[in-house]
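Write out this protein's structure.
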Amino acid sequence: MMNQFRTYIFTIIISLLLGGCSVGKFIPEGQYLLDEVHISSDNSEIKSSEMYSYVRQKPNSKWFSLVKLPMYIYCASGKDSTKWINRFLHRIGDAPRIYDPSVAEETRLQILGAVQNKGYLSAQVSLEERKKKNKLDAYYKVSSGKPYMISSVNYNVEDYVIRGLLMNDSVKSGLKEGMRFNVNMLEEERNKIAQYLLNRGYYRFNKDYITFQADTVRGTYKIDLTMNISLSSNRGESTGSLHRQYEIRSVNYILDGDNAYAANESSTVDTIQYDGINILYDDKLFLRPGVIASHNRIVPGKLYSNRDVMSTYSSLSRLGILKYSNIRFVEHLDNDSAYLDAYVSLSKNKNKTLSFQVEGTNSAGDLGAAASVTYTHRNLFKGSETFNIKVRGAYEAVTGLEGYSNNNYTEYGVETSLEFPEFMFPFLKSDFKKSVNAKSQVSAKYNWQIRPEFERTLASAAWSYRWNSRRRASHRLDVLDINYIYMPYRSKTFIEYLNYMDEINPLLRYSYEDLFIVRLGYTYTYNSAGVSTQQTAKKSSYSIRFNIEESGNLIYGFSKLIHGKPSDGESFRMGNISFAQYVKTDFDYAKNIMIDDRNAVVFHIGTGIAIPYGNSKSLPFEKLYFSGGANSVRGWSVRSLGPGGYRGASGSLDYVNHTGDIKLDMNVEYRTHLFWKLNAAAFIDAGNVWTLKNRYSDSTGQFAFNRFYKEIAVSYGLGIRFDLDFLILRFDGGMKAVNPMGSGIERFPLIVPDFSRDFAFHFAVGYPF
């Protein structure tokens, strides 16, 4: 069996190397493999990349846009479908695309229609087939001709009420005399008018009531355009009279039930009236009436508005206690008046969950394990408040420590948070809270680290807000974030190490002292595609992230007002404990360019600078930048690169020295879909960190304009990604190319690579940017 398996593998490899020979057996006699599709245009406004989306039959996909490896994998199989290896190769491969002339003609007509929709009504599209042996290239050539222009715009609106609304100055028409005729623009105008009327009471209106009549003027390239809004749709539907405007008569929320409550008058459900809405429930009221009312946007007495319906759905979706919500309307006609009763069904989710998590850890080669248990309550005070408490423990076997009998690292932690589905702040009006889809959170955390060298505890408390201003933009405001770092124990050996490092890095000791950090910050994130790094983008997009935070200014001003001068002549203290004072800002930009539906190129740049001042000589260790790792320069392991050309000092805690006050990350990544849920990437990374002050005995690591570009590290590598739709599992292998920490030939490992010296492996969740 093993020999047979090896034979299969050998056969596959040979078939891939001789792919052209193996493809022919899958091409029927007299037919051709569609090798390439080319589209050209004589008009720069008609882009070939846009027209390619109308191609009905596309060639076999290429890995990294270079080689049709999926097709060769398929063709490495035999035709006997009873053999498992053939079925497997067929499943993971891509069958050769045999050229179909009828589909090619359909493509030609699709492209022609798309060009004519842009206003080039006299356009022509030709198809040329170029054959070479058993392969064929299809060439589509677009001759656009002269565009047609709109000479006049007229309106024929049968409903005089709607005519009055549309003639109002508040409705800005996108159709103007003198503009180019464009069918896509007409469709946008239909959608805009339909939405405008749907938000003004016209519950039954849709774009099928809107049609356009385009009359060409003989012998010219001009069109007289008429918009018709009739009382009957193009599907034969007719209002029989003027279109009705509907008013909301009642709003009924049904908790853990269905709309049968409304129809069954004999039902014994309980009803509560609150703020103009009716709340119906069968057993217990699992949400407070005030919470329901605060998330309702459908108001009795107002005209029906589709915008209010969508806003209600969006607001209710932020309530974690709800499994789903459904809104339906029942019509009531009374002579010339039309009313709607709204029924909103709310289905309850599980309000209590308990989860366990076990994970492996790897810190600079030291292996360990961690376990945690999390309890979640999604409706703590019957307002869909989400309460979390997590208890975590970790163990790691620390290696490379000299002078210690116990080389174990343990960590214990507990963290808790309480999240409210609204903007919790005094004196805010309810209208403002409804206009902002916000979440408020308070949290607390305690962490205890026990190492052979020291013990370190971290206690923190935070108060923050998160909200969305637009569908693709999000904000986070940290109003108050208090951190207290306490060092109850430092070993004699560790103190001696700090004394030794005072000559090399006098600021290192600052990272291992008791410290208060009282900060506030703001983060803005925008993604044009509305996706996160946990999702694979389907179209070209870009993302921006900006963060700024400051710490200690309020306490510094208060301390200076009380004491006048620092007690030790160097820094002010709070409760005899130093506090940090700094400002820090970061900026990230990523651009995703889709080459086709299987290949993309992504560019990323990330910069940041943190400046300690006043009460601080250096940043707290937790706020320092580091380079290397799965989301930075992947030829280095985490916290092993920089600052600048710093090569490292002897001692087990040298990862502390590989930090800086300035960071720069630049990345380019080519992403391609392989098969099934597997994606691959080829990447080049560059970057480093630097210090603002001269941290070491020489100037190594300090940022300087005349040499920082010489200290930019470069790496390259390949990665495999498992796209599970809701999660991306990533495995990246990076090789050093330019090493600013090396000297001589070691500075350019690209020339003489050493796998054991220059390779770094990374496992991570989500894309790096």
